[in-house]
Amino acid sequence: MSHATFSAPDLDSFCQLDKMGLGAIGQRVEEDHSVIKAVTRQPDRWWRACGAEGAARDTQGHRLAHVPLGWRPTILLVRVRRYRCQASGKVWREDLSKVAAPRSKLTRQAVLWALKSVVVDRLTIARVAANLGVAWHTANRAVLDAGREFLISDASRFDGVEVIGVDEHAWRHTRFGSKYVTVVIDLTPVRDQTGPARLLDMVEGRSKQAFKDWLAARGQAFRDKIQVVAMDGFTGFKTAAQEELPDAVAVMDPFHVARVRREALCVRRRVRDPPRWVVAATR
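^ thats the sequence. predicted structure below, dont judge the formating
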């Protein structure tokens, strides 16, 4: 007898295929990646121009990078049906707009996963690209486009913000040095215990001027509502907050508080219990 809190195993819901209107019909697990074969649940056999029903012509395979399962790249192989209108002879294929954006190599669920990984989990674009099994530029372009669509284009995202957090994020590692962005998030839901933190914006660079310019561009009405600014120990962010938000309280976020405490304990232990070669040299 099955437990009331469990349901039957369902690959479609586990892989989030049902959210895109797909159904899994096969799988293949390789050593370094997985492949899921799927088809659309609702066949699109009606020609939109005249409303006539089309006859099945053939199918085509469409490969897309999907949300990685088990931290290995997962490829979604969608079998797209094609139909021919018997009256006009026109040929069309099933609509995959719910699965992926036009000319995209990632599913919509994979794009959301990549955006969350960069913003919330602090993964680099290189790490995200490796997990998805795509090129760096493909992952980078997908994250930027999703950020503009879900965040930058939403002017209401600044409404009700009273607590913000600021930190730098390594966007890309190169042989000439790492490329950084300044990430600003809304911590008001965390303080009020109404939900998780929200991404507000990402600014190129990590400096006092980058954060100061961002605050100045928000307007006086926004700055007057800010009560707390959480940050790391970087003095540039603190100085910018003091100049643009003189009435706000600057605090250090819990992650960096724990790191500073851990480093202080390590220093104290080295002073109390120095290595043997140091003790021998002082004798």
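Strands lie at 22-29, 34-40, 54-69, 72-85, 91-93, 163-174, 177-186, 198-204, 228-231, 249-252.
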